Amino acid sequence: MILCSNRQWQHLCVVILLSFSAVKCEVIDNEIHKLAYIDDECELPDKLRKEIHSYQPIVNKIADEVLNGRFAGDTYNTLSEFIDTFGPRYSGTKSLENAIDFMNEKLKEVGLENVHTENATIPNWQRGFESAQLVQPHPQNLPMLGIGPSPATPAGGIVADVVVVESFDELNSLSDDAVRGKIVVFVPVWVSYEVTVEYRVFGASRAARKGAAAALIRSIAPFSIGSPHAGWQLYEDDVVQIPAACITVEDAEMLKRIYRRGVPITIRLEMNAKSFEPFVSRNTVGELQGHTYPVDKKVVVLCGHLDSWDVGVGAMDDGGGAFISWKAVEYLKKLNLRPARTIRAILWTGEEPAVAGAGEYQRGHAATEKEEFNFFIESDIGTFEPLGLDFAGNSDAECVIKEILKLMTPLNATSFATPMQGGPDIDLWTSRGFPGASLLNKNDKYFWFHHTYGDSMLIENSEYLDKAAALFAASAYIIADLSIDMPRDLQ
Ligand SMILES: *[C@@H]1O[C@H](CO)[C@@H](O)[C@H](O)[C@H]1NC(C)=O
Ligand SMILES: *[C@@H]1O[C@H](CO)[C@@H](O)[C@H](O)[C@H]1NC(C)=O
Ligand SMILES: [Zn+2]
C-alpha cells in the first residue's frame, strides 16, 4: 500500500514516520525488502575488487580482537553500566542531559577526537498521570500509554461510549453522528510495523475529523503480554487535537469482540499530559580523524540515538545501536587503524519525538553536506544477532557494499538487503540520495519490546553486541579508507 501518496503530506510523513524506526515514504510493502545472500550480478572493476579484498587481514584482526581478544564483552559491559546508571533517557529530562554529559566525557576518555556536543532543540512532552478503565459492560483497568504529543483530557477525565473500528475505511463508513463525542478505538489487523503504524500516527486526527472525543489505538506490535507501547503521532493541521493513547493488544481485541456482539461499551479516560517549551538538548559527536583527506570532508558517520522513551530503559531502542556505533570508533583507534577519511560517531538526542535531534543537525550542516559526508551507517532496529548490512543508495554503491560484505565471514555477517529499513536518523540524508546502511540483524522480536517497559538489558546479548561493533568498525574502516568515494546520485 502507498502510505504517503499525497505530495502535500510527503514532507510531514517523512518527518513523522521516520521516528517510528525505519519507514520510508514510498511504496510500503515488506515483499520489496529483499534479504539476498551475496550474488554475482555486480561487475566491479577488477582493480577495485582486489583493493576491497586487500582489507581481509584487517577485518580478521578486528574480528579477532573484538570477539576473542581484549575487547570481548566490553560493549555489553559498558552499555549495561550506562543503562543501569541513567535509566530512561526521555526527551526533556535531566536523566537524558546527564547521560549526554557522561558520554561527552566518556568519548574523550577513550581517545576519540574532536569530541563535542551540538545543540538541538527537541519537543518536551510529558505524560503526567494517565489512566483508562472499562466502565461498561464490566469494570476493568486498561493499561495504556498516551501518545506524544497528546493533550490532556478535561480535568476529571472523559467518560464516553465507544466505537470500535478496524480500519480508516470502516471509520469513514460511519456517519459523523455515530462518532461525535465518542471514544474511537482502532483495532487494525497487524500487518507489519511500517503498515500498521499509520493508525497510531493518524488515528487521532481521523477520529477528530468525525467529532470523536478521544482515540485509543491497539498497540503497534505483533505480540503482547499485556504491555501498552508508547509512540509519537501527527496531528493534521486542521483538526481538533483530541487525547490519544495506546492500549494493549489483548484489551483492544477484547473490546472489538464485545463491540461486534452489539454490547454497549463505556470507557473512562484521564490524561494529564502537557507540552512544555521545546528543550535545548545536544547531539554528541566524537571522531577518528582521517589521515589523508581534510578531517571535515568525506566523513563516514556511525550513529544511534541516546534518548529513549520514558517507559523501559531504552537498552534496545537505542542503547545497543548507539553503543556499537561509538565502540566501533574506539576499537579502531585502539587498534591503530586510522583510515584515509574521518569516521564520526554521532549519538543523537531527541529521536523519539519525530527525529528532532538529527533533524536539527541535518539543517545545521546542510550548507556543507555534499562535501562533508561520504557514507552514513546507523543502528536503530535492534542489535540482535548481526546478519550484515541493510543498504540505501545507487547500484554502484550497492556493488561496493556487497563486495565489502564478502569479507565479513569471520563475523558470520555477510548478508545484504535493500531497501534500507531501520535508519530513521540517517534517512534524512539517504532519502535524498546519500548512500548509507543500517545493521541487518535477526530482529524478528524487535517490535515485541519496542517502546514498552520490556525494553531492558535482558534483550541485549554480549556476543551479538561484539559482532555488531566489529561489523560496524570493519565496514566503516574500509569505506573510509578506499581509494574511491562512495558512488551516489544526489537529488
Ligand atoms: C547551546 O545551548 C545553551 C543552552 O541553551 C546555550 O547557553 C549555548 O550558548 C548554546 N550554544 C550554541 C553554540 O548555540
Ligand atoms: C551464522 O548465521 C546464520 C544465520 O543467522 C546462523 O544460522 C548460523 O548459526 C550462524 N553461524 C554461527 C557459527 O554463528
Ligand atoms: Zn530508536
TrEMBL record:
GO terms for biological process: peptide catabolic process; proteolysis. GO terms for molecular function: carboxypeptidase activity; metal ion binding; metallodipeptidase activity. It comes from the Eukaryota. Gene3D superfamilies: 3.50.30.30, Zn peptidases. Residues 1-25 form the signal peptide. Its main location: endoplasmic reticulum. Transmembrane segments: none annotated. GO terms for cellular component: endoplasmic reticulum; extracellular space; Golgi apparatus; lysosome. Keywords: Carboxypeptidase, Endoplasmic reticulum, Glycoprotein, Golgi apparatus, Hydrolase, Lysosome, Metal-binding, Metalloprotease, Protease, Secreted, Signal, Zinc, Zymogen. It is found in: Endoplasmic reticulum; Golgi apparatus; Lysosome; Secreted. It holds the Pfam family Peptidase_M28. The keyword Signal applies. Residues 283-473 form the Peptidase M28 domain. Belongs to the peptidase M28 family. Homodimer. The monomeric form is inactive while the homodimer is active. This is Carboxypeptidase Q. It comes from Pseudolycoriella hygida. The gene is cpq_1.
